[in-house]
Amino acid sequence: GAVVSQHPSRVICKSGTSVKIECRSLDFQATTMFWYRQFPKKSLMLMATSNEGSKATYEQGVEKDKFLINHASLTLSTLTVTSAHPEDSSFYICSASSGGAGSDTQYFGPGTRLTVL
Amino acid sequence: SQKIEQNSEALNIQEGKTATLTCNYTNYSPAYLQWYRQDPGRGPVFLLLIRENEKEKRKERLKVTFDTTLKQSLFHITASQPADSATYLCALDIGNSGNTPLVFGKGTRLSVIA
């Protein structure tokens, strides 16, 4: 099946710094990528939808200036958590869809564990 | 508002038995429903997709049913093994295409005891 990678898998940073997370589709072109956040023992919550070459669509309550998303190519989307604070500590997961006919399935990355001290 | 509920947060079963997990939804009319497996600290892994016109779908020891009248999907693992222990998530594509986001249930944490 299709493979989606994320980098880094784990990051610890100091409060106030910015962290960039990369999401790559390795063997297919992803017209759409999604960013989710998951707190412990909670479900995945959608943060934003990212289409290649256009601005991301953010869910209600997600600050677009804090969570910067760039989808510059069909295989790469990045999420930058700016001026991170301890409450941003979470598990961030991306998924990708090829968007073609019959492409109902999304493929998820392995996730990035962010800890803000 | 739209809601997805998975019947229990945790389920413990004996090895070899069949595990049955439930997913109920309200205020949706999904064209299909998906089940994922998530291990601790990992992203979800796609297992099965069932469409509204399919009553049942099977993949090896997995079976999924989809009742659009009851607005319910059942997920079965037969001859369960300790390696099946994980959290299982049901998900609906709110736009009914791969280009729209998934809405997840909270998941059921399955523990298969040897």
Descriptive terms for the model:
heterodimer; A: 117 residues; mainly beta; four-stranded antiparallel β-sheet; 11 strands; globular; B: 114 residues; six-stranded mixed β-sheet; five-stranded antiparallel β-sheet
Helices and strands in order:
The complex is a heterodimer of chains A (117) and B (114).
Chain A: E1 4-7, E2 10-13, E3 19-25, E4 32-38, E5 44-51, E6 57-58, E7 67-73, E8 76-81, E9 90-97, E10 107-108, E11 112-116
Parallel strand pairs in A: 2-11
Antiparallel strand pairs in A: 1-3, 3-8, 4-5, 4-9, 5-6, 7-8, 9-10, 9-11
Chain B: E1 3-6, E2 10-14, E3 19-26, E4 32-38, E5 45-51, E6 56-59, E7 62-67, E8 72-77, E9 86-93, E10 102-104, E11 108-113
Parallel strand pairs in B: 2-11
Antiparallel strand pairs in B: 1-3, 3-8, 4-5, 4-9, 6-7, 7-8, 9-10, 9-11
Q: What amount of the residues of chain A lies in strands?
A: over 45%
Structural class of chain B: mainly beta
What structural category characterises the helix and strand content of chain A? Answer: mainly beta
Write down how many β-strands of chain B occur, each being a DSSP E stretch of 2 or more residues.
Answer: 11
**Poorly predicted segments of chain A:** none
Largest sheet of chain A: 7 strands, mixed
Helicity range of the residues of chain A? under 10%
Proportion of residues in helical segments of chain B: under 10%
Instruction: Give the rounded overall mean pLDDT of chain A.
Output: 90
The tally of beta strands of chain A, per DSSP, is 11
| Poorly predicted tracts of residues of chain B | none
Largest interface: A-B, 29 and 24 residues
One letter per element, helices H and strands E, the order of chain B comes to EEEEEEEEEEE
